[in-house]
Amino acid sequence: MALITLRKNLYRLSDFRMHGAALKSQPLNHVHKVVKERLCPWFCSRQPEPFRIRFHHAHCKKFNSKNGNDLRPLSGPVFSQISDWVRLEQNVKNGESQTFYKRLSNLTSSEEVLSFISTMETLPDTMAAGALQRICEVEKKDGDQGLPKEILENSIFQALCFQLEKEPSQLSNTTLVTALQALILLHVDPQSSLLLNLVAECQNRLKKGGLEVRNLCILGESLIRLHSSGCVTLELIINQLQGEKLETFTPEDIVALYRILQACAEKVDERQTFLNKINNFSLSIVSNLSPKLISQMLTALVVLDQSQAFPLIIKLGRYVVRHVPHFTNEELRRVLEAFLYFGYHDRFFTKALENRVAVVCLTLDPEVVCGVMEYCSRKRILSKPILNAVAETFVCQSEKFSPSQISALMEPFGKLNYLPPNASALFRKLENVLFTHFDYFPPETLLKLLHSCSLNECHPVNFMAKIFNPFFLQRLQGEESRLDRLSRARLTQLFLTSVLECPFYKGPKLLHKYQVKSFVTPCCSLETPMDSQLYKSVKIGLIDLLGARLYFAPKVLTPYCYTVDVEIKLDEEGFVLPFTVNEDIHERIALCIDGPKRFCSNSKHLLGQEAIKQRHLRLLGYQVVQIPYYEIGMLNSRRELVEYLQRKLFSQNTVHWQER
């Protein structure tokens, strides 16, 4: 059928004679009742409403309802011939189509769309589907909700849906899949006769191989949203798409193909050759992708674990930069997740992120704020504009963050060793939240949060007694036979902090069974391992300076859980002792050979876990000497290295060491 006429769907339900015969007068509320009975499987029950709309119909006389009950013929022809239908459809396509869609795109509400199509004498099926699609677009602007009741009860909308259900086999491919897509997005009941008929017709045409690339992509995405067809139908769609030339795909089709493959991710290994082909082709279309399509493609690449497609990821990252101001909250969150998954970051993206967050941080969703903070934390990015904006957001809107989100938001301040300008207000707000909602925080989350505060000298003294309490430790352990090592390491460092930096704390101590002997662990360590290449360079200089390898020891585990990169022992007169000597030691020098991973990215700012280590070592009596990578990198000769170490280690001009 080439044309859908809304009035026909209503009049055919009443008893009337055609070709000049008088229409039997049926009250319009009876007509509305019949339509509603047919529609009740699609939507929830609704109250009847007056039905007073003027229609112009191409298949019957024009009628006008003045009082809602009496229908009188106006003027005009009765049925048109088939040739008239074809010619009208062609005219619509050639002349009226652009005007129709232009006007449709300017409408901003479902009511406006329905009012607009009610003024049309005839409505081609493609335009009817377009109207449904526009209703979907304007409704989706307010969130992922179903249609409001007043739209569901609208007679024009009901008649439009009824026609689609009545003769789906007569719809064009494009109209069929577009209507299905719109109705699914509008949350029509998946078990309704309307959707079941449309899906069945789509599957029938799919088996016959009569759907074009674009229609296959729309159908695939629609079935994914419907959650009812499993991978069987999707596999059939993928097989048909695999036989098409990628050059015929639009950017939207390529992203839809990724999303269809994403829905069948368990078979990714079988499709990897096809995926490699898509990944390579996608390099040519990145510049044409919208912000939404870029975020969808990145998400699909994550689900499909396409780490080998790094050229594509890099190119997507470059184009993400220009779209940062235009991403929705959800799209930005997905982009951040993808970048974290693939380990991608660059300074241009960080700068664009800073510009956006600094301006709109107060309006960002909590999940996006936490995603931004996780990105900065994982990539060791000390972005003061982002951290300052997030700190201000938490002070002003702490109530919108859940306990886990508060922890995710606050931890980067400790890791990056940064205090924002409003640090006092920030930690005062955090303290108030903890006092009020302490029991709502999961034990592990609370421990991570309080531990991160101690890294940049904001010690949670008021809560130490609670976390060292056996009852809290039992909750932290849960049903496990033993507390995990990372939690024990955090507890130990907090206890050490209470002893060294909070001498006024007189509460409970951490039981010995919960303490660790070393902060270095194979998986998650509270210390960054020493850079081996940097150590080799320093070792050469130390041997030249001290005269022998005997006078220093690498990776020395102290009684206080910290591992010193290089330890040098001095006697009371300042002589260097062999590292094997354990008596008459007057002073210990702790060399911190700090590689790039101990600093914030592209910065000379030490990370929190390294700052607290050096702070504690000083309080424990060590002479801490920092040997940063950026100073070693400026030395051009071995002699310069020895002179540099001489200045760092000793204030006197000559060095002494004991004979063996």
TrEMBL record:
GO MF annotation: an example: RNA binding
Pfam families registered for this protein in UniProt: FAST_1, FAST_2, RAP
Transmembrane intervals: none
Biological processes annotated in GO: mitochondrial respiratory chain complex IV assembly; mitochondrial RNA processing; positive regulation of mitochondrial translation; regulation of mitochondrial mRNA stability
Keywords tagged on the record: Mitochondrion
Cellular component terms (Gene Ontology): mitochondrial matrix; nucleoplasm; ribonucleoprotein granule
Location(s), subcellular: Mitochondrion
Main location: mitochondrion
Domain RAP: 589-647
Keyword Mitochondrion attributed: yes
Protein's name in the database: FAST kinase domains 3
Gene source species: Mandrillus leucophaeus
Gene name of the encoded protein: FASTKD3
